[in-house]
């Protein structure tokens, strides 16, 4: 191979490498994401070192994991999201758009857990700015405990300090501001981000110090997106929803030590982020009953059922072609559900504009929400309000059949606990446990039957 320095192209969305520029990344299919980065000549691989006994392959039965004790972060919901606290030596990425609350959340960890010796590395804000924020977050209480603030962006210096201090927890804000001498490109470029994350991972594994890494996500994804980091880190927590309202949703997308797709809801207050322990109560309507176009859906968040409001607006198309828009829900799935309503139940929606919205900026992928989407669309179409005490859990198939969804029992008990009187489920659901008192389970087998049940 020629020894002259050469460059490679990286996809800034998924990190895929390519020897030449391409308009579309063949790995993730995104357009215009290829960025150029110089290739650094690798140091010759060192011959395998004489390894000490504990670095040899070991029998599974002999491995002791009792030392994998988890560190509690003093925030109940955050601990739950991580699968019961933070595992020693793990690398955790907190991603989200700028201004959504990543720095606030990570500074709240040492403040709510003063016994933890924390090293907070800030590349974005000065020490004074961090101090001011901490003052506000702790509202004058002296709770800073053993938290060390280090304003530095060169990762070699950061790691040198970290090795000397050996904190219980290290927080790095943010990966885009850090740089390493090992790579020549500018901070925030794909190769810098990969290298910085890899050296933090090595540090975490060698020292056993858990590291929380903050990463910005830009909407256009041009600056290295989170996907590159997703493969490197152990846990990815991502803030979702818009940051206009006061609620913030933090979701676990990847977790090597716990279940994924769990979510925690926080409220941004003057004193920082407050955990919302009962998110269903915040996601179900705050308005008077009697509004058409809303229905309550049951979604599984990891293992916990969550109830939230689906809103639809159906109106005659103002221009020639009807508009369809879905926020927090897959647009193609909405089109499919509208086609089912048209073809299997005879509703003429093709000349109507349909807008769909999930409450609280939630992004929904549980197919169990189909039934509520259909109910909300029909309710808006007829301008007929659904009773406020009924909710829905069922998937809709292409032939208009209502299919059963996972954990129907738990969805029913959660609905009953929140005071719902009626829940619509598929008639093919197998329900093992006794129906809790106070709620009626209405079984429907297809869309026409649902319509009968709702609007008879
Ligand atoms: P921040 O944590 O700085 O966002 P990120 O690190 O993700 O870019 O959050 C900034 C927003 O939060 C900012 O708009 C101000 C608001 N905020 C509050 O409302 N209350 C608070 O106590 C704090 C610290 C921030
Ligand atoms: Mg920040």
Strand fraction? 25-35%
Average pLDDT reading:
85
Quick one: CATH superfamily of the largest domain? P-loop containing nucleotide triphosphate hydrolases
Question: What's the Cα radius of gyration?
Answer: 26 Å
First and last CA, distance? 76 Å
Can you count the beta strands?
23
So what's the overall shape?
globular
Residues in helix, % = 25-40%
Instruction: Return the structural class.
Output: alpha/beta
Please summarize the sheet with the most strands: 9 strands, mixed
CATH C-level class of the largest domain: Alpha Beta
- Gross CATH architecture of the largest domain: 3-Layer(aba) Sandwich
Bound molecules: thymidine-5'-diphosphate, magnesium ion
The spatial strand order of the largest sheet comes to 8-7-9-10-6-11-12-13-14
Number of domains: 3
**CATH fold assignment of the largest domain:** Rossmann fold
Structure notes:
- It is built from eleven helices and 23 strands.
- The model has no long low-confidence stretch (mean pLDDT 85).
- β9, α5 and β10 (211-216) form a beta-alpha-beta unit.
- A nine-stranded mixed β-sheet has the order 8-7-9-10-6-11-12-13-14, sandwiched between helices. It has a seven-stranded mixed β-sheet with strand order 17-18-16-15-19-22-23. A three-stranded antiparallel β-sheet has the order 2-1-3, with no helix packed on it.
- It has 456 residues and is an alpha/beta fold.
- α2 packs across α3 (127-138).
- Bound molecules: thymidine-5'-diphosphate and magnesium ion.
- Residues 96, 98-104, 133, 136-137, 268, 270-272 line the site of thymidine-5'-diphosphate.
């Amino acid at each position: 191979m020629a020894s002259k320095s050469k460059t490679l192209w990286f996809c800034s969305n998924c990190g895929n490498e390519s020897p030449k520029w391409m308009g579309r990344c063949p790995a993730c299919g995104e357009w215009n994401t290829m960025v150029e980065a110089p290739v650094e000549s690798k140091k010759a691989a060192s011959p395998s070192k004489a390894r000490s006994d504990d670095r040899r392959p070991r029998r599974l039965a002999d491995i002791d994991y009792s030392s994998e004790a988890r560190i509690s972060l003093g925030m109940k919901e955050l601990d739950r999201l991580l699968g019961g606290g933070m595992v020693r030596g793990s690398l955790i990425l907190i991603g989200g758009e700028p201004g959504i609350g990543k720095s606030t959340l990570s500074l709240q960890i040492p403040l709510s857990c003063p016994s933890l010796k924390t090293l907070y590395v800030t590349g974005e804000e000065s020490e004074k700015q961090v101090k001011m924020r901490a003052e506000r977050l702790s509202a004058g209480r002296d709770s800073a405990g053993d938290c060390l603030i280090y304003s530095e962006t060169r990762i070699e210096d950061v790691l040198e300090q970290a090795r000397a201090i050996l904190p219980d927890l290290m927080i790095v804000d943010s990966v885009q501001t850090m740089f390493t001498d090992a790579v020549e490109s500018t901070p925030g470029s794909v190769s810098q981000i990969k290298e910085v994350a890899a050296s933090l991972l090595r540090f975490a594994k060698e020292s056993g110090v858990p590291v929380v890494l903050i990463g910005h996500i830009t909407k256009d994804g041009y600056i290295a997106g989170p996907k590159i980091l997703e493969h490197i880190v152990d846990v990815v927590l991502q803030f979702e929803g818009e940051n206009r309202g006061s609620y913030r949703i933090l979701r676990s997308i990847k977790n090597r030590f716990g279940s994924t797709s769990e979510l925690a809801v926080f409220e941004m207050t003057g004193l920082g982020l407050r955990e919302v322990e009962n998110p269903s109560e915040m996601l179900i309507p705050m308005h008077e009953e009697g509004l058409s176009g809303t229905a309550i859906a049951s979604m599984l968040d990891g293992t916990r059922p969550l109830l939230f409001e689906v809103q639809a607006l159906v109106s005659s198309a103002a221009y020639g072609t009807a508009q369809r828009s879905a926020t927090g829900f897959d647009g193609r799935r909405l089109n499919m559900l509208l086609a089912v309503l048209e073809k299997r139940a005879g509703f003429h929606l093709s000349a109507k504009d349909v807008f769909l919205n999930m409450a609280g900026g939630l992004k929904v992928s549980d197919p169990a929400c189909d039934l509520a989407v259909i109910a909300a669309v029909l309710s808006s179409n007829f301008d007929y309000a659904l009773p406020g005490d009924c909710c829905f859990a069922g998937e809709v198939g292409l032939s208009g059949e209502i299919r059963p969804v996972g954990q129907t029992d738990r969805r029913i008990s959660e609905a009953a606990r929140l005071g719902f009187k009626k829940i619509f489920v598929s008639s093919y659901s197998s329900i093992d446990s006794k129906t809790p008192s106070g709620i009626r389970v209405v079984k429907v087998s297809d869309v026409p039957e649902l319509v009968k049940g709702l609007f008879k």
